[in-house]
Amino acid sequence: MSIDFPHAAPAQRLTVLSGPSGVGKGSVKALIQEYYPWVWLSVSCTTRQPRPGEVDGADYHFVSTDQFESMIAAGEFLEWASYAGNLYGTPRGPVEERLRAGLPALLEIELQGARQVRRSMPDSQLVFLAPPSWDELVRRLTGRGTEDAATIERRLKAARAELASEAEFDHTVTNVSIEQAASELVELLGSPAIVKSGAR
Ligand SMILES: Nc1ncnc2c1ncn2[C@@H]1O[C@H](COP(=O)(O)OP(=O)(O)OP(=O)(O)O)[C@@H](O)[C@H]1O
Ligand SMILES: Nc1nc2c(ncn2[C@@H]2O[C@H](COP(=O)(O)O)[C@@H](O)[C@H]2O)c(=O)[nH]1
Question: Broadest EC class (predicted)?
Fold first, then answer.
């Protein structure tokens, strides 16, 4: 069944969540998946090795560098970037399908990718997830315990540039608590779209 109200939800647009490594993007995303299941999240491709507990196809599509490069050549990415020694990209098809159906979509990506989306889809809204302080960011990134010292150093170097880019974003959400940040982000996504037939 398809319902067409005269004042149906406006055409949905893409929302991009970005912010420095360790700020809590993944944590906010996980809470949104659990408590706001109507929010659709893109699953990225990456050449990085899975962390313990990460599931292929759910957290990421873990691919080889050859596979990733073939996807670039075939134009399969909406955006992609090299970040801290690995490649990351958003598969174009699922996002475009979602937006064509008039449903909101959320990407969690780093700064270079956010800039590409801004250029190719100027209608998208860019949300910056900020840490309460630099010291807290360092604490979160090191406390996660998933990267070695050299990788943490690389990510903190990138974080300085990412923090300096905040003014390029449409909105800032400060991640004081995961629940508060998730709720502010969901507010920015707008109310759940009217679900059309066949779309979830
Ligand atoms: N509001 C918060 N308060 C305290 N700790 C937090 C908060 N948000 C996230 N954390 C913790 O900070 C660490 C980093 O969080 P997370 O992995 O979600 O960051 P990220 O932005 O996704 O990082 P990356 O970009 O490197 O993947 C985790 O150990 C997480 O539990
Ligand atoms: N440009 C893109 N960046 C992405 C994508 N998927 C994730 N990311 C970002 O990469 C870093 C590192 O992630 P991690 O899981 O290795 O810690 C982080 O900032 C992610 O937001 C993507 O498809 N494109």
Answer: transferase
pLDDT tens-place string over residues 159-192: 999 999 999 999 999 999 999 999 999 999 875 5
Beta carbon of 109 within 6 Å of any ligand 2 atom? yes
Buried b vs exposed e over 151-184: b needs ≥16 C-beta within 10 Å? Answer: ebeebbebbeebbebeeebeeebbbeeeeebbbb
Tokens of 119: 């250029």
The yes-or-no verdict on residue 71 having pLDDT over 80 is yes
Terminal-residue alpha carbon distance, the chain:
13
Judged by its nearest atom, the ligand closest to the C-alpha of residue 61 is 2
Residues making up the annotated binding site for ATP are 19-26
User: What is the pLDDT at residue 191?
Assistant: 58
- Establish whether this prediction's ipTM goes over 0.90: yes
- 7 Cα: distance to centroid of ligand 1 (angstroms): 39
Average the pLDDT over 34-58 and give the result. Answer: 95
Q: Give the closest ligand to the alpha carbon of residue 62.
A: 2
Give yes or no for residue 110 CB within 6 A of ligand 2.
yes
The residue ranking higher by pLDDT, 24 or 7, is: 24
Q: Which ligand 2 atom is the nearest neighbour of the CA of 108?
A: 21
